[in-house]
Amino acid sequence: MEKELQNVQNGTLSVWAGEREQRAFNAAEIPVVISVAYTYGDMDEWYDVALGKKPGHIYGRNTNPTVQAFEDKMAALEGAEAATSFASGMAAISNTLYTFLRPGDRVVSIKDSYGGTNKLFTEFLPNMGVECTLCDTEDYAQMEAEIAKGCKLVYIESPTNPTVKVVDIARMAAAAHAVDAMTVVDNTFSTPILQHPLALGADLVLHSVTKFIAGHADVLAGVVCGSGKLIAQIYHYREINGASLDPWSAYMAVRGMKTLKLRVLKQCENAMALAQFLATRPEVEAVYYPGLPGHTHHDVACRQMENGFGGVLSFALKGGMDGVRRVLPRLKYANCAANLGAVETTYGPARTTSHVECTPEERAALGIAEGLVRLSAGIEDTEDLITDLRQAIEEGYKD
Ligand SMILES: *Cc1c(COP(=O)(O)O)cnc(C)c1O
Q1: Phi, psi at residue 92, to the nearest 5°?
Q2: Do the strands 204-208 and 182-186 form a parallel or antiparallel pair, or are they unpaired?
C-alpha cells in the first residue's frame, strides 16, 4: 500500500489505492493495457525484469499493469501485504486450494459453502486424495472438535449462501492456528467494507469479484489477498495453470470499486428494511438475515461485521415453489437471476442459483427448501423496493 494512503478509511482506499503509479500519457484514469507482451531493447534489463529483480512486465499470463492496479487496490482494502487475481471467483478458490493441498491432507469446512466450492469439497478434492470434512455451519463446537483432530486448511464463508449463516471467524482461526492449519475465508458476501477476515486472524481472504466488488454484474473476476509469502505461492500456481484475469475485466473491477462503499452501505440499508418488512408478512414462513435480532448468531455478526450486515437475505414463502411462482414474476424493479451483489435488486430461488449444482436430496440435507428465495438488495430507493415487494406478495396470494 502506498505510504500516503495509510491513515485513510475504506471509501478513500476504494477510490485511490493502487492508482499512484498509473500515469501513461498523464492520463488521470488507470490505462487498460491490452498488450500481451512487453518489449525490451536492453537484454540485461529484460533478464532482470524476468527474474523479478526489477519492476516491470514480461507476458500477460503472468502480470499486467491494469491487473496489478486492481490487485493493489484489493490488497489495500483487505489490509493485506499482497493480492493475486483470477478469471473468476471459482478460479480464485480452486487455485488457492490446489496450491496448498496434497494427497493425504485434510480440510475442515462448512456444509453451507457456495455451491461450486461445495463441489470442490465433495468431488474434485476427494478425487485427488484430500479428505474434506463439512461441518454444520452454526455448530461452532463441532467445527472446533473437527479442527482439533488435525487438518491442513480451514475454509469458511460468512455470511453464507443462501441462508446467510454467520461463522465466528476469529474463533475458527484460533482453532486452526492451534493445529498449525491455514484459515481461508471467502469474503464475497461481506466485502472489505463490512468485514476484515485477516484482522480477525485468517491467513487468506478471497472474493468472487463478480459480485459486490465489481458490483454491476458485467465482469467475471476473482482475487485472493494475504501475506506476500502465501500470495507468491498462489501466484506461481496461477501463472503456470493459466486462470489469469484479463485487463479489461480488471479495469471494470477497478471502475466498480470506486463506488464500493456507497453501494454496499445502501445495499445494507435496503436489505435490513426488506428483511424487517418480510418478517411482518403472514405469507412468509422464515426470513434469514444476520441483522435481525432473532438470527442465531446476531451477536457474532455484530462483533465481526463493521458497517452493516450485508446486502443479501433469504426468505421462504408459504407453499414452496408454488409461492415463488406466484410472487417473483410480479416484481417490477428486480431481476430474477443467478447473480448477486449488483446495483439492481436480484431475486433467485436457491435451487436455480447458488445450489443449482446440488441434487434435491443434497439441498434438503443443507436445509435449503425448494422455495427458498435469495434476495440481493440493489441501490434503488428503499421505499420503492418495499412497495414493489408488497404488491407482488399481495397480488400473488390473492386467490
Ligand atoms: C459467486 C460466488 C462464488 C463464485 O464466483 P464466480 O465469480 O462466479 O466464479 C464463490 N463464492 C461465493 C460466496 C459466491 O457468491
Answers
A1: -60, -45
A2: parallel
Protein residue with its CA nearest to atom 1 in ligand 1: 208
Angle between helices 169-178 and 140-148 (to 10 degrees): 20
Pocket of ligand 1 (CB under 6 A): 88-90, 114, 116-117, 157, 161, 186, 188-189, 208, 210-211, 220, 222
Q: Name the one residue in this structure whose C-alpha cell is 461452532.
A: 140
Active-site residue set: 61, 114, 186, 211
CB pairs under 8 A, 24+ apart, for 256-259?
A: 256/213, 256/214, 256/215, 256/216, 256/219, 257/14, 257/70, 257/73, 257/77, 257/213, 257/214, 257/215, 258/14, 258/15, 259/14, 259/215
Q: What is the CA radius of gyration of the chain?
A: 21
For position 151, what pLDDT does the model report? 98
**pTM summary value:** 0.95
| The pLDDT of residue 131 is above 60 | yes
* CB environment 362-371: b (16+ within 10 A), e (fewer): ebeebebbeb
Q: How far apart are CA 292 and CA 241, in angstroms?
A: 43
DSSP summary character for residue 210: T
Element (H, E) at 248: helix 247-257
Least confident of 95-109, 171-185, 280-294, 347-361: 347-361
Q: What angle do CA 118, 76, 101 make, to 5 degrees?
A: 35
pLDDT tens string 77-104: 999 999 999 999 999 999 999 999 999 9
Return the number of other C-beta atoms located less than 10 Å from residue 360's C-beta.
11
Give me 228's grid cell.
506476500
Ligand 1 centroid, distance to 53 Cα (angstroms): 35
The pairing of strands 131-135 and 153-157 is unpaired
